[in-house]
Amino acid sequence: MTRRGTKVETVLLQVVTLVLLACAPSARGALPSDNVSVQWNRLFQQLFCTGNGLRFEPSILLAHLNLAQWHALEALKQTGTCTTEEAVVAYASYTVMVNYFPFSSETDIDPLLASQIKGLSKTQKKLAKSLGEAVAKRLIETRQPIKEFLLEDIHDALAARGGDRPGLWGYIPNTPHNPTAPLVTHYYNLEQTFILPDPTEFVEDYLGNLKPPKVPSAEWDASYASLVDVGRIDWPGRTRAMNFTASLYACPKVNVTYNESGCTTDLFWIQAALNALPATTSLYDAVTLLAKMSVALHETQIIIMTMKDGFYFWRPALAFRTGDAHHAPIPNWTPYAYTFFDPEFPSGVVGVTSAGATVLQSFFGEDKMVAFTVGGNGVFGPTCPGSAGQVIPPRHYGSIPAAIDEAILGRIYSGAHYNSSTRDGEIVGKTVAKYVLQHWGKRTPSGVLPDTEYLDVFVKLPTKQQEFVPVHYEV
Ligand SMILES: *[C@@H]1O[C@H](CO)[C@@H](O)[C@H](O)[C@H]1NC(C)=O
Ligand SMILES: *[C@@H]1O[C@H](CO)[C@@H](O)[C@H](O)[C@H]1NC(C)=O
Ligand SMILES: *[C@@H]1O[C@H](CO)[C@@H](O)[C@H](O)[C@H]1NC(C)=O
Ligand SMILES: *[C@@H]1O[C@H](CO)[C@@H](O)[C@H](O)[C@H]1NC(C)=O
Ligand SMILES: *[C@@H]1O[C@H](CO)[C@@H](O)[C@H](O)[C@H]1NC(C)=O
């Protein structure tokens, strides 16, 4: 009895082994120990950060790369196609990368693919290619990034509003922030979300209690006081450490090796994830984490921009120079570093940081203390006010929340944000990331945009403070 059982099992085992051999792992050993997903993310950083391709906002490109990898693995699971996980991820990534970085195709992208599929049989390559390419193309085709055609409408709406209003965003006289300055970031509002419902509804339903302070009010007095000294370039109390923290979040860097540290807040978190993941993580788990993270970072940008444009709160330099009912003007108030030219509330850098942190923390569990390091190669550029020429060593964090604290201080010390707006930015990122995690895989990302040629944009600016008047568009 026992003997016969054993025999059957042995035979079964042999059959199973044969099937597995035919269907999968022969190529595994041929792949580099550094896995495919990681290699494509590093190459993405390098090409994006050195400007060797589409220098568009990274979060949509990054979401495409990591979602394509995830969809490829899901498709492989569903279809049971006889090829390898690594190979479908390689072809999906390749398709996205060639689309966005066509000039690096021969020098960087083709060779990486070639090294990853070495050792695969012809059939395995063919199957992996058709599967990986298909999922990547579907993503790209429905989700082309769109142009900044909205800016003109915002300039017009500002001109029509006429004059400054206390508490509302506007041009800063006698600075580069005048009507000819390039406005930034507002095109995010026109990108569709992958997982979140309509951004305006999301803000109203999940973040309705967040608002910039009323001017004048005791709450505004507190925001004002939180920044008027520490954010200003010539405040005598600035320490070298404060300057350094501000510079991390505000200064251009040179001589950076971008395969180890990204050039944007999004990429900081991708890098953090790559470095924090335990070596035993499966390819599927790593890809899923990176996909969730990229999507959360992308959705957070959209929500932040929707709020910024909806509330139109004034930037510190405008507020302090203009003054208000409780504060005399300080005509020469200058922030430590150049401030993005868009409305202030809430902080985008902190929002994105908090989203990345929330997704990474969720991988390990809420209470786990996770230390990590992000490569910090490079040097602060010559225009960096307090830290020019200083080397940026690798940055070590004792925990994931420690990186949020650093970002908050960085944005305050650089004079870009009031304390209250950084704290609200943290809430925004956390709320969006949690929504993405809870709804992952439940809604098929659609993301088909209306044709921008036929799009009408309506920009109406708030005329009263704390009003939420989102930019509106329709076909
Ligand atoms: C900034 O806000 C946090 C949270 O509201 C508060 O605990 C902290 O004291 C504030 N710091 C300053 C300098 O206003
Ligand atoms: C950057 O690297 C170049 C070439 O190695 C070197 O000449 C230059 O001094 C470096 N710049 C800084 C600011 O370190
Ligand atoms: C990044 O590139 C440098 C220089 O080419 C190399 O020495 C280093 O090992 C690379 N790091 C990673 C993580 O690939
Ligand atoms: C892929 O890379 C991640 C991050 O470095 C690592 O944790 C994981 O073990 C790698 N997986 C495979 C299958 O190589
Ligand atoms: C901090 O930066 C400011 C602005 O460039 C500079 O004037 C000041 O000397 C720096 N402080 C320290 C301690 O390095």
UniProtKB/TrEMBL annotation:
This protein's record includes keyword Protein biosynthesis: no
InterPro entries, sorted: PAP2/HPO_sf, V-haloperoxidase
PROSITE patterns: PROKAR_LIPOPROTEIN
Keywords of this entry: Signal
Origin superkingdom: Eukaryota
Signal peptide: 1-29
Record keyword Signal present: yes
PANTHER family noted in UniProt: PEROXIDASE-RELATED, PHOSPHATIDIC ACID PHOSPHATASE TYPE 2_HALOPEROXIDASE DOMAIN-CONTAINING PROTEIN
Name assigned to this protein: Uncharacterized protein
Organism for this UniProt entry: Ceratodon purpureus
